[in-house]
Each structure stands twice: as structure tokens, then as C-alpha cells.
């Protein structure tokens, strides 16, 4: 869930000179594929191809940088090979969660891949945009009504978003980054205070047990 600050930054960037575009107009969108039986294609060899699974993604993270498993090169033709810089969306169950790839590899059919035109959209801005309540609300609405709620290429391609100029996108991302640094600094300060309180409590307990505290 995005913070209120991130939501405001994205909305403010869209005010004024913006375009209403479908995701499919500035992103190539495709679905992954799974070679089966998958155990036949898994390998520990150094020349194996990264096998990118949902379990390789952190629930709170933005990037997928490493994978736990690899597949043999022969499995590539039965899957979909994607490159660093692409976006992945979970397309079933807990669907619509965006991740940015920082590695090359193959994706299974639980993923949709978006390959953006980076002349039109800034990477971090697209990440925040895809994670916004506006876009997720569209995903949720479009996936409603089916027995198994999932996304497909057609649904995602037709989601309309408000896309400001690349310059305004960069300005929004810069504001979000500065805000995040402030939050992280406050969290570190809070953690230090908690550690100091814990140390003081332990010291007082030790003095009490040793009879050094007097009333």
C-alpha cells in the first residue's frame, strides 16, 4: 500500500499537461510460460537461465535481482525470456503487484511482463503509478466476476492512466526519494531510542537485583 505522500506526488505530477493513455500504448505486454514438467528443466549448472518465480520477489520490495533456481537453455523456447528493466505483474491470486527486474531470465505463466518505452515513462514513476490505488482499482474491477480472479494481456493493455511529461515524472520521483530518506532517518532515530530504553531498563534491573537501588 502506497503512502499518502506518494499518492499525492503522483496525482500532483498529473495535474495540467498530461496525456490519458492505455498501458498498452507505451508498454509491450506479454505473458510468461512454463516448461513442463518443470523438474525436467531445472538445473544447478552455471550456464543455466534464471528462472524467475513469484517467491523471488519480496512483498515490500521494488526489485527482483536474484533467483533461487535456473532452467536449462532448452527450456527458454517453452517459456518467455525477459531482460533487466522490464516490469513484472503478478497475474493471479494476489494479482497486480508490480516489480522491476534487475536481472535477465525466464518467467512462468503466473507473471505478466511489461516492457516500457522509456522515452515516454520514467522507470520509478511507472513503478509508483502501477502500485497506485487508481491503477490497482482498475485491475480489481476488471478481474471481478470470474471464478479465478486474474489479469490477462487484454485487460492490462486497456487500463487507462494519466501520464505527465517525463520531466514532471522525474520531479515527482525526486520528491518521493527525498521524503523516503527523511522517513528512513526518523526510523533509524526511533530504533536508536528504543535500543537506549532497552539498555536503560536492563541496567536498572541489574542494579535492582544486586541491591544497588535504594528508595
TrEMBL record:
Pfam family, one: Methylase_S
UniProt GO BP: DNA restriction-modification system
Keyword DNA-binding listed: yes
Residue ranges that the Swiss-Prot or TrEMBL entry lists as coiled coil: 169-203
GO MF assignments: DNA binding
InterPro entries in the cross-refs: Restrct_endonuc_typeI_TRD, Restrct_endonuc_typeI_TRD_sf, Type-I_RE_S_subunit
Domain Type I restriction modification DNA specificity: 22-187
UniProt keyword Coiled coil present: yes
Keywords: Coiled coil, DNA-binding, Restriction system
Family: Belongs to the type-I restriction system S methylase family.
Name of the protein described by the UniProt record: Type I restriction modification DNA specificity domain-containing protein
Organism: Paracoccus salipaludis
